[in-house]
Give the backbone structure.
Amino acid sequence: MTKALVGQSIAEQIAKHIPQAVVEANDAWVVIKPDLLLQVVQFLKATPGFDFNYLNCVTGVDYLDYLEVVYHLTSLERTHSLVLKVRCSREKPEVPSVVSVWCGADLQEREIFDLLGITFVGHPNLKRIFMWEGFKGYPLRRDYL
Amino acid sequence: MEVEKPRFDLFLEEMDQAEGKEIEELIARSQHPLPDQVEWLEPGPRPNLLVTTIDKVFNWGRHYSTWPFGSGLACCAMEMVPTAASRFDQARFGMEIFRASPRQADLLIVAGTLTWKMARALKLLYDQMAEPKWVVAMGACAISGGTFAHSYSVVPGVNRVIPVDVYVPGCPPRPEALLYGFMQLHQKIERRSVRDEFILADLRKIVPGRSKRN
Ligand code: SF4
């Protein structure tokens, strides 16, 4: 079984290397600043001891006040897992893309872009995937209907 | 020698735009359900002995050889599959195998949720089937959109896109229900007359609005 790592302890270690990256942490997750996400993610992937070489899934959530992207990470060698979160505003929904780190994020980021309208900066092919070109609005946003 | 690389990205973008436009057009065209295929069920003048005899032979042949073309779009397909397998065995009705090509099938079973993006493809497949052809709408989703009727992407009933012969309700319907639907379809086919077919074919040519299979 994979062991879920405690958010606070990871946040401390991240803060040692990349100060100001952590916004908030509790025992289940760590919230990261969007502009430092790529650095944090590279740190988590490359540092021995973490080795987060597998991205389970990317999820987008609409919380009305802000939008959130959730990353579930797993290390296949060390069998531990971690939940990372990134928040962005509704007015300027932009989050850096992690495709350069894990290729598997490609289609999932496109899905979030399609249904929630979050732009992933640096994504190689960011366009609609479920809905057709010319579809108006982002259907999974709470104010869609 | 320098070879110019093909620009697939531009080509794909054009394809996406074209697809989007087509889907928008399809949605605009399908705001109302198409009428069901019941032309030949309307009582007309009594056909003579020769016609009824030919009808019997034709319809006997047709209704014992309706080869299905499965369009398993969602969860309902899981019930359509055992209908063809040994326990429920639709081969008893002469519906031997699911054909993978619309050209070889007489019966389109729409099993599952139809989305607007898929509707284009389904309509194309239906148009490719050879006459005479029948359609079974299986499950709440295919009948009316079911749980997803007011969703942003789901067609509220396949009869928006293609005319339906038999509706099999359920979510999902059990294989027995689907078999019952097939039996109803067979009864419907038995009431079809060759004479009507020719008259209707002529009518379709003269009055395009008469066509129930746009
Ligand atoms: S009717 Fe029910 S079982 Fe069938 S496709 Fe719809 S949701 Fe799935």
